[in-house]
């Protein structure tokens, strides 16, 4: 790995301290008593628990791994996830309220007002609504003749798109071009929608 791309990993001492804080916080949350944590320590403990439980959900719900396979990896992931990455995972998962074991996931800032309105960040174009915008994430069959035509018109991964209409044909604006296509073609274009679609 290039030195410029390295990032500091938590030291074993930091990991141990955070785990101890999380354990104390969990004991209090589950009615076990104990001394209260300072505001900063409580925030750190909640963050540890949140990252761990989101990692468990990601490994279970998205990667479809069995419980025996997720414990160690989720613990490793928890130590390296930033708050921003945790919020992105939370949003991707639809702001889950519980981990796979039924325990509460502490909510983050991304959850406020979005618990009941979360939707997938990546959608096939044929499932978007008229007026929705995003960026092309990928084409399901990039070597098909239809895909080659779309690529030549600017529908390439990363390009901004706007669905203008879905009937009688799907009409998409991409840059200065307007492209019409059948539903089967639109289903093969996967778009990162909404906020996640903007650069």
Topology:
Blueprint: H1 12-29, H2 39-62, H3 67-80, H4 83-92, E1 122-124, E2 133-139, H5 145-152, E3 160-165, E4 170-174, E5 177-181, H6 183-186, E6 189-193
Antiparallel strand pairs: 1-6, 2-3, 2-6, 3-4, 4-5
Quick structural summary:
This protein has 199 residues and is an alpha+beta fold. It has helices at residues 12-29, 39-62, 67-80, 83-92, 145-152, 183-186, and strands at residues 122-124, 133-139, 160-165, 170-174, 177-181, 189-193. It is built from six helices and six strands, in the order ααααββαβββαβ.
Outline the structure in words.
This protein is 39% helix and 16% strand. The chain is α+β, with helices and mostly antiparallel strands. It has 2 domains: 3-111, Arc Repressor Mutant, subunit A (Orthogonal Bundle), CATH 1.10.10.10; 122-197, Ferrous iron transport protein A (FeoA) (SH3 type barrels, Roll). It has a 6-stranded antiparallel beta sheet with strand order 1-6-2-3-4-5. The mean pLDDT is 79.
């Amino acid at each position: 790995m290039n030195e410029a791309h390295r990032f500091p990993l938590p030291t074993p001492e930091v990991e141990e301290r955070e785990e101890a804080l999380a354990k104390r916080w969990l004991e209090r949350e589950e009615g076990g008593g104990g001394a209260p944590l300072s505001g900063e320590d409580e925030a750190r403990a909640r963050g540890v628990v949140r990252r761990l439980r989101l990692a468990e959900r990601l490994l279970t719900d998205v990667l479809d791994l069995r419980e025996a396979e997720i414990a160690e990896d989720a613990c490793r992931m928890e130590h390296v996830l930033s708050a921003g990455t945790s919020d992105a995972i939370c949003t991707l998962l639809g702001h889950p309220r519980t981990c796979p074991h039924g325990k509460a996931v502490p909510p983050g800032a991304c959850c406020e007002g979005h618990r009941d309105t979360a939707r997938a960040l990546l959608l096939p174009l044929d499932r978007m609504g008229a007026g929705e915008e995003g960026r092309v994430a990928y084409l399901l069959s990039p070597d098909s003749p239809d895909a080659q035509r779309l690529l030549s018109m600017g529908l390439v991964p990363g390009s901004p798109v706007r669905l203008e209409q879905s009937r009688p044909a799907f009409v998409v604006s991409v840059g200065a071009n307007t492209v019409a296509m059948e539903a089967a073609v639109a289903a093969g274009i996967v778009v990162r929608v909404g906020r996640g679609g903007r650069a």
